[in-house]
């Protein structure tokens, strides 16, 4: 019989840490974007969900948004462009990195 360790299966680690923060609370504040992932939304079928790992002040935080503009912009950042500093501007219906 095989031992589980022989399968060399490593646990999947959640790379995003920190408390959730609403994107609206970040408007006009300088933040660092460390990483992101885009996946299908579980709440709105046919849409995508953007998860951001950020630093606000000296704290790591997590941001969730379905903003199509932010998703489009972040997908165009080259992988070697992380981390980067930005300010999110917008209103309740429109967000963008500046």
Describe the overall structure.
This protein has a six-stranded mixed β-sheet, covered by helices on one side. It is mainly β. The protein contains one helix and six strands, in the order ββββαββ. It is globular, with a radius of gyration of 16 Å. Helices cover 8% and strands 40% of the residues. The chain has one domain. The protein starts with 18 loop residues before the first strand and ends with a strand. β3 (48-56) and β4 form a beta hairpin. The protein has one helix at 68-75, and strands at 19-20, 30-40, 48-56, 59-65, 84-90, 95-97.
In short:
With 98 residues, the protein is mainly beta.
Give the averaged pLDDT, no decimals.
Answer: 93
Task: Please bin the fraction of helical residues.
Answer: under 10%
End-to-end distance? 58 Å
- Spatial strand sequence of the major β-sheet: 1-4-3-2-5-6
Q: How many domain regions?
A: 1
Low-confidence stretches: none
Percentage beta strand: 35-45%
Q: What radius of gyration results from the CA coordinates?
A: 16 Å
The main pleated sheet reads as: 6 strands, mixed
| General form | globular
Please give the number of β-strands: 6
Question: What structural category arises from helix and sheet content?
Answer: mainly beta
Helix and strand run: EEEEHEE
Counted by DSSP, the helix tally is 1
């Amino acid at each position: 019989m095989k031992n589980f360790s022989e399968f060399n299966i490593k646990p999947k680690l959640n790379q995003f840490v920190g408390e959730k923060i609403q994107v609206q609370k970040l408007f006009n504040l300088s933040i660092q974007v460390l990483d992101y992932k885009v996946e299908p939304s579980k709440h709105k079928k046919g849409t995508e969900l953007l998860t951001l790992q950020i630093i606000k002040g000296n704290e790591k935080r997590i941001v969730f948004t379905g903003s199509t503009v932010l998703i489009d912009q972040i997908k165009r950042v080259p992988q070697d462009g992380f981390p980067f500093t930005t300010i999110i501007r917008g209103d309740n219906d429109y967000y963008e990195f500046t």
